[in-house]
Design brief:
transmembrane, transmembrane helix, membrane, DUF6223
Length: 136
């Protein structure tokens, strides 16, 4: 005999998405080193957003120095800053919500990586915006 949960349980209640996401991040982490937990997934997403910001910020910086293409790279700088800030916020939330150290499944190492990479993206984007402001 199978037991089926109600549809509301499966959908998770759309009105309480914020507390549900926080609850997922702070769940107990009885996992091995290779399990992709919610904390690890969030920190991976934050690190990827930061990495996208670094790549776009680097390209915008190269464009603003005249090495590739034409233009001042302002659009790329804004994208780099926004992606870097998103990586910083996600990494900060993961680090703040972690109850254990490295290897516990809370994603704290990836959270710190997201913080560092996001900060680099924000700095690169800020450099390009400052250079475009001086030139314009």
């Amino acid at each position: 005999m199978s037991v089926r949960p109600p549809l509301g349980t499966l959908l998770g209640g759309f009105g309480s998405a914020g507390p549900a996401a926080a609850h997922v991040l702070v769940q107990s982490a009885d996992v091995d080193a290779y399990t992709l937990t919610a904390g690890r997934l969030w920190s991976l997403g934050g690190a990827l957003l930061g990495l996208v910001g670094v790549v776009i910020g680097g390209l915008a910086l190269a464009r603003s120095t005249g090495r590739i293409g034409t233009g001042d790279g302002r659009r790329g700088a804004v994208v780099a800053v926004v992606a870097g800030l998103a990586g910083l916020v996600i990494g900060g939330v993961v680090v703040a919500a972690a109850k254990g150290g490295p290897g516990t499944g809370y994603g704290i190492v990836g959270g710190y990586v997201a913080l560092v990479v996001g900060l680099i993206a924000v700095v690169l984007g800020g450099l390009v915006l400052a250079r475009a402001r001086r030139a314009g």
